[in-house]
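Work Package 4 report. The design task specified in the project plan requires that, given a folded chain encoded as structure tokens, an amino acid be chosen for each position. We show below one input record used in the internal validation round.
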């Protein structure tokens, strides 16, 4: 089948205005949007810029706006889209070229929440063991692949890029609720700041956008509740 693909083009180094280019590509219904982008880049316009690595929904490098929704180009099939297929860069970060955005701010926010195990316990001979019940508390947020689809679909982030954003909160959640970690208070204090978790207005775009099916809004709510328990301990139930 012939498929029309409209791609938003921009080159920050050229200083020209953004434009839309339309391409016609030969595709199978079960081809992915990523295959269409490759068909354009390899056979029609070698200057088209986009990121990809694994091609299988693991690395998170090809998140983009496809028919108006943040998705991974390697996970969306042509047959599941209404033509023409429109492809744009994620919103909220500066565009470098075409579908490539500058993720520096995203990774700065990621680092700010200390997304690693904090503990004074010396390493055991083997692994740091954990009860499966305790692991269930943060199982969902371990699935994050740092694609940025949640953060760049969030109106609170669009309005204020200082907001740490859903992805960083998901990363913090993964450690805040890990019984082996001792950095809970430090992370909650970071997320209690003006640029932190209370900028979330519970809009649910993040949950809708997550290609891994993480309930991002639920994770954010649990972090809000943990901060409130920390700040107002006398309100604790039981
Ligand atoms: S290319 Fe790795 S997630 Fe799509």
């Amino acid at each position: 089948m012939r498929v029309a693909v409209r791609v938003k083009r921009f080159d920050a180094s050229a200083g020209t205005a953004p434009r839309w280019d339309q391409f016609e590509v030969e595709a199978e219904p079960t081809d992915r949007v990523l295959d269409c982008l490759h068909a354009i880049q390899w056979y029609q316009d070698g200057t088209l810029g986009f990121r990809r690595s694994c091609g299988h929904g693991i690395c998170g490098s090809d998140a983009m706006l496809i028919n108006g929704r943040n998705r991974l180009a390697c996970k969306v099939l042509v047959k599941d889209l209404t033509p023409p297929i429109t492809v744009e860069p994620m919103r909220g970060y500066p565009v470098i070229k075409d579908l490539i955005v500058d993720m520096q701010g995203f990774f700065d926010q990621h680092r700010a929440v200390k997304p690693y195990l904090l503990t004074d316990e010396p390493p055991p001979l083997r692994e740091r063991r954990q009860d499966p019940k305790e692991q269930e508390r943060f199982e969902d947020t371990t699935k994050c692949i740092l694609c940025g689809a949640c953060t760049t679909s969030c109106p609170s982030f669009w309005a204020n890029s200082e907001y740490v954003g859903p992805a960083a909160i998901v990363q913090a959640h993964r450690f805040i609720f890990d019984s082996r970690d001792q950095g809970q208070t430090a992370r909650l204090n970071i997320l209690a700041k003006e640029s932190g978790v209370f900028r979330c207005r519970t809009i649910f775009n993040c949950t809708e956008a997550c290609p891994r099916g993480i309930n991002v809004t639920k994770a954010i709510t649990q972090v809000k509740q943990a901060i409130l328990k920390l700040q107002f301990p006398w309100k604790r139930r039981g």
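The beta strands are 2-9, 19-26, 63-66, 69-72, 85-88, 95-97, 100-101. Validation will be extended to a larger panel in the next phase.
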